[in-house]
Design goal:
Layout: H1 7-19, H2 22-29, H3 33-47, E1 52-55, E2 58-61, H4 63-90, E3 97-101, H5 103-106, H6 110-119, E4 126-129, H7 133-141, E5 147-151, E6 161-169, E7 171-176, E8 197-199, H8 207-216, E9 225-227, H9 231-239, E10 244-248, H10 253-257, E11 261-263, E12 273-280, H11 287-300
Parallel strand pairs: 3-4, 3-5, 8-9, 8-10
Antiparallel strand pairs: 1-2, 5-12, 6-12, 7-10, 7-11
Helix pairs in contact: 1-2, 1-3, 1-4, 2-3, 6-11
């Protein structure tokens, strides 16, 4: 097996090519001429070609050497750029990480994702914005946000954006613990008409799923409904009333775990949808954003436990 090409091989090769002299390259790199000569010979042995030709008292690149220089230069520049980005983050000079998070992930995965991110001591500030999906995606397109975490939007809303699936979840009908309908053994869907319903707004990503579900089950409209995307209002209203909240399960995951809310026995599997990371297509990630994305993936993984 051939010895792998190392960064020092490329760095010394590039300097010798620039200076057209082993001696001048050695002086600039502050190493001995024999060390430079040895490194160039190692590189030529690895590649199986001669990179330099003699030219008078000096040397010059051969044709193969010129081809290799173009690629070697790009590789070294890429490595140095990566080192600079890491140094920027560690020096607390990197730009903030700006995340748009739908309520469905704000409660379920973002707290753990942020804990994982902070463990890396990257130094970048974190900005988390919540709101309707359409608004967050528009802010992502205009580069006001770097990343949006939430449900996959409709195809016409995804122009210029990329989506990475993390997990799937469905819409549920949530009520406070001890709600009258939870004690009703003969519960029927048309009984929903007797209660105040909290509905997702028309601009929310889950609204089409909810409307199709209600229509398919013979409930084209609800007599008393309040449209909201505020999880704080929804949580407070449901806990203090007999209202019913139509919401993505992730929003109330903590309430369910703590037995402050319950889910009505309604099969809503047809409302199941993909949740993941949405980014601008072709956009480059800096170090801080890359670590944040990895932290979100880890927090969303099925095997992840609360950190």
């Amino acid at each position: 097996m051939k010895t792998p090409i190392k960064f020092r091989h490329l760095q010394i090769f590039i300097e010798v090519a620039r200076q057209k002299s082993v001696g001048r390259a050695a002086d600039i790199l502050a190493i001995s001429q024999p060390a430079v000569t040895k490194t160039i010979r190692e590189l030529e042995e690895i590649l199986g070609v001669k990179l330099f030709e003699k030219e008078g008292r000096g040397i010059k690149l051969g044709r193969i050497g010129e081809v290799f220089l173009r690629n070697a230069g790009a590789s070294v520049a890429s490595v140095l750029q990566g080192v600079d980005s890491v140094n920027q983050a560690l020096l607390h000079s990197a730009p903030p990480v700006r995340i748009g998070a739908l309520p469905t992930v704000s409660a379920r995965i973002m707290p753990d994702a942020i804990k994982l991110y902070l463990r890396e001591n990257v130094g970048s500030e974190i900005k988390i914005v919540t709101g309707e999906n359409a608004v967050l995606l528009e802010q992502l397109r205009s580069a006001e946000l770097d990343l949006v975490v939430g449900r996959l939007a409709a195809p016409e809303k995804m122009t210029g954006l990329s989506f990475e699936h993390l997990y799937s979840e469905q819409v549920v009908f949530a009520v406070r613990a001890g709600h009258p309908l939870m004690e009703n053994t003969n519960f029927r869907l048309d009984e929903l008409r007797n209660y105040t319903m909290l509905m997702p707004t028309k601009a929310s990503v889950i609204r089409p799923f909810v409307e199709r579900f209600l229509m398919a089950n013979g409930i084209p409209e609800l007599p008393i409904q309040i449209e909201t995307v505020s999880d704080s209002f929804g949580r407070a209203f449901i806990r203090s009333s007999d209202g019913i909240w139509i919401i993505s399960e992730g929003v109330i995951s903590n309430d369910l775990r703590d037995n402050r809310m319950q889910i009505l026995p309604i099969d809503t599997s047809e409302t199941r949808g993909a949740v993941g990371l949405t980014t601008r297509a072709g956009a480059e990630e800096n170090t801080a954003l890359s670590i944040m994305s990895q932290s979100i993936r880890a927090a969303a993984a099925p095997s992840h436990k609360t950190v």
